[in-house]
Write a structure and sequence with these properties.
The complex is a heterodimer of chains A (160) and B (358). Chain A has 160 residues and is mainly beta. Helix content of chain A is 12%, strand content 44%. Chain A contains 1 helix and 11 strands. In chain A, strands 1, 2, 3, 5, 6 and 11 form a 6-stranded antiparallel sheet that branches. In chain A, strand 8 and strand 9 form a beta hairpin. Chain A is globular, with a radius of gyration of 20 Å. Chain B is mostly beta strands and 358 residues long. Chain B is built from 2 helices and 29 strands. In chain B, strands 10-12-17-14-15 form a 5-stranded antiparallel sheet, with no helix packed on it. In chain B, strands 11-21-18-13-16 form a 5-stranded mixed sheet. In chain B, strands 22, 23, 25, 26 and 29 form a 5-stranded antiparallel sheet that branches. The N terminus of chain B is likely disordered. The chains are: A mainly beta (160), B mainly beta (358). The interface between A and B is large, with 47 and 42 residues. Strand 4 of chain A pairs antiparallel with strand 4 of chain B.
């Protein structure tokens, strides 16, 4: 029993040592503006442009790229990325994306859950929280992230 | 460009600090100049051991100015005018539906096609007297000088009055369309043209770097889309053969103590002056004045400066209705004068009565 505990501790210490040698997960945040043009035949063309200028009503896409800069794999299911929404934007329902992630939302910034489990009280009636009432988004990356590997998550929001 | 961008991000950070407690979000959107900062954090484990959380870089956006305006014509029906007439008033409301303060130029459109006649002259005033409606003269509303500008705050509204003069010889029933345009002076500067007869409305989305409120970019909003132009409205003038004008005033106040103070028991003498303009005849002209609950009619006080039509008695009883329509109607506490047919241009008729303060 004592031996196993010591071994576990040793593994942990080794992992910490390798991480401090080269910082493991790094996040790079970026934003762009989404423009949608509808042609006469109804075809919608979506283009991504620089978010400048931005005016009320503009659709923005925030992308968070995460990478493993270390030399040890990051545990499967352990990467949890949280993005509190700026007060000046409204989340656009159904736009949160992340390959291999479990996406949850929050209406209070504290507890996170699947959209159908989130409740808010509107005019005295408890209802499933509409997407525009979300205040934060969380992604849990399910697989292991190998050393040197990277992935990204994103969501769209509209400027109030 | 890089230098500009760096400066802008710097501005965004400062603005964000200022707006940390409460974001300034107008009905029309986030105020121009507001900084929007976004960061994400991540937690993770390596070999079953939780690592220190990491933060992303900060993504800073600076909200630019969206230039939008809405102009509506407020009068419920065409403004009745006579031919000739000076100073017919159309009332418009201009709303800055953008997210920043903006200077606007007003352009009145006199020579619109597709109507029956055009006014011979027009002027533009904007509300500054504090009293709703157009007040001309000292302490009145401000005349907008052609080519000038008036600043309206984001979400702000301004009443704008267009006065029109009608020439002689326009037939009754003729209609005239009168337009009012509000255009941000930033657009005029950007488009480089200011021809009222051939206005240029830049395509929504066009942006003018640094030209917005507080030095942000100014972007043309959807209200300037020529297929659904919201920055322009039209009002209508309708020429009528006869137009009735009524003016009510207090002639005298006599209190029970020989003074002129409005106290219970004081008697107020009212005068109602009725004038009919135009070349036609105002038929079945009935003047009514409902007394407020604080006043009681003084019997026998009705007067008229001209003879009333046959059958109309300046008595206290408005009975039977349909024959003698003139008098005081006690149930409704209303004074009635039936003037019948009055020709346009005839001498004004002054009607009077007394009321006592209860």
């Amino acid at each position: 029993m004592q031996k196993i505990l010591i071994q576990l501790f040793a593994v942990g210490a080794m992992a910490l040592a390798s991480v401090s040698a080269a910082a493991a997960v790094a996040l790079v945040h970026s934003v762009e503006k989404i423009e949608r043009a509808t042609a006469d035949d109804g075809t919608v063309t979506v283009t991504h442009v620089a978010a400048d200028p931005v005016i009320p009503g503009d659709e923005l896409r925030y992308t968070i790229t995460f990478s493993n800069e270390g030399d040890a794999p990051v545990d499967a299911g352990s990467i949890v990325i949280t993005n509190p929404l700026p007060a000046e934007v409204t989340y656009l329902g159904g736009t949160a994306f992340g390959a291999g992630t479990r996406i949850t939302f929050s209406v209070d910034g504290v507890s996170f859950d699947a959209p159908e489990m989130l409740k808010v009280t509107i005019e005295g009636v408890e209802v499933t929280a509409p997407a525009d009432s979300y205040t934060a988004i969380r992604w849990q990356f399910t697989p292991e992230l190998a050393a040197g590997a990277k992935s990204h998550v994103s969501f769209n929001a509209r400027l109030k | 460009m890089n230098a500009l961008r760096a400066r802008r991000i710097g501005v965004a950070v400062i603005a964000a600090a200022g707006f940390l407690a409460t974001s300034l979000v107008h009905a029309v959107g986030v105020a121009a100049g507001t900084g929007i900062n976004n960061t994400a954090t991540a937690t993770y484990e390596v070999g079953g051991v939780a690592q220190s959380p990491v933060q992303s870089n900060l993504v800073a956006l600076n909200v630019d100015e969206m230039m939008n305006a809405n102009v509506i014509w407020n009068d419920a029906a065409p403004i009745t005018v006579t031919s000739p007439m000076t100073g017919a008033v159309l009332t418009f409301t201009v709303t800055n539906t953008g997210n920043g303060a903006e200077a606007f130029r007003f352009i009145a459109e006199r020579l619109l096609a597709g109507d029956d006649f055009d006014p011979v002259a027009m002027s533009v005033y904007y509300e500054s007297s504090g009293t709703p409606g157009l007040q001309v003269g000292v302490g009145g509303d401000t005349q907008f000088i052609s080519g000038g500008e008036v600043v309206i705050a984001a979400d702000g509204t301004l009443a704008v009055y267009v006065t029109a003069d009608v020439d002689v010889g326009v037939a009754a029933g003729a209609l005239s369309q009168v337009g009012l345009r509000a255009i941000a002076t930033t657009l005029i500067a950007g488009a480089g043209t200011d021809d009222p007869a051939n206005p240029v409305f830049p395509t929504p989305g066009t942006s003018y770097p640094g030209a917005g409120d507080g030095g942000v970019d100014a972007v043309v909003g959807a209200s300037y889309d020529t297929s659904a132009l919201a920055v322009r409205a039209e009002g209508t003038l309708l020429v009528s053969a006869a137009v009735v004008a009524i003016d009510k005033s207090v002639v005298s106040i006599t209190d029970p103590f020989g003074g002129a103070t409005v106290v219970p028991g004081a008697v107020i003498r009212y005068a109602i002056t009725v004038s009919v303009g135009g070349s036609g005849v105002a038929d079945a002209l009935l003047i009514t004045d409902a007394l407020p609950a604080e006043l009681e009619f003084v019997p026998g006080s009705l007067t008229a400066s001209a003879a009333l039509p046959a059958g109309q008695e300046l008595d206290d009883d408005r009975v039977p209705a349909g024959i003698d329509n003139t008098g005081f109607d006690s149930p409704s506490s209303t004074v009635f004068f039936d003037l019948g047919a009055v020709s346009g241009g005839s001498a004004p008729i002054t009607l009077g009565f007394d009321a006592r303060v209860r």
